[in-house]
Amino acid sequence: MTTPADAADPTDALSAVPAESGRRAATVPGRLRFFYGPMDCGKSTLALQIDHNHARQGRVGLLLVRFDRSGSPRISTRIGLARQAIELDETTDVRGLVRAQWAAGRRVDYLIVDEAQFLNEGQVEQLAELADLAHLDVYCFGIATDFRGRLFPGAQRLFEVADELQAVQVEVLCWCGSPGRFNGRVVNGSLVRAGDTVLVADTTAGDGSPSEEEGGPNNEATTTVRYQVLCRRHFRSGDLGPIPAAHGQLTLA
Ligand SMILES: [Zn+2]
């Protein structure tokens, strides 16, 4: 057979062992890592950086993002991750995605999953299986808690099963200067700590079902929803600070 001299041997494509970094023993399980932090803390940037570092070593990765219509488009679009990411929905079997790559003759050494808080438990299990049995390194990035201050289901399962947990805290501060740990949902200027989670979590795949009430894409522009990072004290008190509509705040109208 003839292959371009500079290309990786395509016959290695179906092997679990990476071609270029072949010394990496196939018997070493991959690791499942969860990098978590408030929104805008640089998780997606870190995700791309990790991807870049691996790619430079000749490793091949898949970039995945859990689709959400919720209200954090800045995370996924600001740095253009979406253009090269595969969107997962509620029913996606991540193992199937990897197998499809193998079947197409492509190697997969690692996975990068953005918006991992939106994964369901089963998908987190699938990632763990891929780490254990397919020796993939899995890097998950996401927000830990929702606007109520409760763990997202995907984040919770990752906290339970990941090999490594790493808080990403890149200078995301509350207006008071304290570290921001909570993603407050601000509806018409007031902090909302209870209520429907559809805006952030249970956005089932778009199957023509009516849009959610508040902030739904087809809603009248009378309700504005944005998110603001707050410290625990101000998350609890609901004090949004002197300039609640600070620069670049996310607004769903
Ligand atoms: Zn504060």
Automatic annotation (TrEMBL):
Point to the regions of Low complexity compositional bias: 1-13
Q: Which Pfam families match?
A: TK
Coiled coil located at which positions? Answer: none
Reactions catalysed, as given in the entry: thymidine + ATP = dTMP + ADP + H(+)
Which keywords, in A-to-Z order, does the entry hold?
ATP-binding, DNA synthesis, Kinase, Nucleotide-binding, Transferase
EC number(s) given by UniProt: 2.7.1.21
Q: What GO molecular-function term can you cite, just one?
A: kinase activity
Keyword check for Thylakoid: no
Q: Does the keyword Protein transport apply?
A: no
Stretches for region Disordered: 1-20, 202-222
User: Its domain of life?
Assistant: Bacteria
Give the record's family classification: Belongs to the thymidine kinase family.
What is the designated name of this protein?
Answer: Thymidine kinase
